[in-house]
Amino acid sequence: MPGLRWRRLTEWRFVLVAALVFLWSSLFLTRRPGPDLGGDEAGWEGCEGEERRIANYLVVMRTSVGARGVRDVIRGRVGEREREQGRSCNMDVVFLFGGLGENSSAVAALARETAETGDIVRLDTVPDAHSRDAPLALHFARTLNQNKRRCRLYRQVIFGQHMHNEERLLAKPSTPAERSKANFWELDGCLRFSNIRDNNPLFYAHYFPRRLHLQLETQLSFSYNEDVITPHDYPYLLGDPQRICNRSDTGEYFAVVAVHSSQRSFDNRILIRDTWGHRKILQKYGMKLIFFVARNSSAPPSEARKLREESDSFGDIVQEDFEEAYKNMTLKQVGLFKYMTLHCSHLRYRFLLKVDDDVVFDLPNSIRLLTGMTRTFPNGVPHRSVFCYHLNEIADVPRYKGKWFVAPGEFPGKFYPAYCSGAGYFLTRDLVGALYRAALHVRTFWVDDTYITGVLPNVIGDVMLYQLPKQFSGLTVQDLERADPVDAYPAMYFFHTGQSAWLFKKMWNIVRKRHVF
Fold this sequence. Notes:
Distance between the termini: 101 Å
Largest sheet: 13 strands, mixed
Structural class: alpha/beta
CATH class of the largest domain: Alpha Beta
Number of helices: 18
Strand content: 15-25%
CATH architecture of the largest domain: Alpha-Beta Complex
Oligomer: single chain
Strand order of the largest sheet: 3-2-1-4-7-20-14-19-12-9-10-11-8
């Protein structure tokens, strides 16, 4: 009998251990729900198990219809890098075309190439023209799950164009001037292009797909948590909602301009209100101006009093109770989203324009440029999109000592995702609340532009980043001091003046020459 009791006790122990293991797996191994991001299994239907693959990148290239040689060079580059490194690049390349109309010879040539290579995608609903690159990218991204590549899921989709011939892609630097600025574009050590910068493809948009948020933890070490982990519960010191976003405001705005400023930057705010942020200019072009600042505890009490007086006079300042510091810029941007979500959600606006307080921008031409890019979208506003004055491509995380040094514990990944430089970008209205809610559930990161326009869009998914054409020239403050950008860069509408009041005024005078305000 003792042996029987021991066997029964052992059996009960086994059942108890099995139950505990099941309970533990249910609590900790089951996928936690996210912010309505879609299921990872969607789109696998009809795929055999061995065909399923999660790839890092899908590169979508725009080329001229007749540029078969360019496409062959790009196709060969992926295989070339794979052979050199002895590893899979884990990326795909496709070539995107719009509708070709009555051009039967082009249609036939692409049909033959498609049968041969299988990497041609045509969207007949959008005309095949350079001015349609943005809508083509958006429509492709939105239909990515319905096309023939449904057995492939991608972490990022990268859109580029190269309208030159293959010799430009293969060119080597031949002059001292070319050698001095030799550069190449490389994606994850796999897809490398010319070491002459001007010959490289232009990458103009990045899309973060909707379904892959659960895989991103291993890539970016930022994942969505069910619980709120960064509550952003700082109280407001200034910013009466009844004055800034009054419920009786029934106006329709093209954009709300949200300016990152600091408590002591009185002169910068005066410059903005006297120039492109003047009340009459804002009214003429349908803009609303709000400044966002933090607290400067090291400043004398007179500075805080002066800020309060300024707020009372203009009614356009929001201040939250956290310390003003370079590494708190992310807090300021999340606070901006919080204020717009909680207190200004009734406002009717199409975009939120985030800028720094040392920026001059050509408001009428920026509106014209953005309107031209978005006019093919429903109501002129694309879904969940960011329009960047400078779109940063995927790049190494800076591990060198300096202002932007990032320790592995802060950002463990090797590469930053694509993101917009923080000096200025437009967000569609539907992203403001989505990014705020995501920031509450994703651990924060102090590099604000990377976090706000790269990490968070990567986590929530279904977000497109666009480069506004010709808006980043690589000009330094010294370049602007020596030259007149109206002559050298007539299409530039955005100038970052590096906290130089003299340069700010010079740039504003240039903008004034273009318009009658």
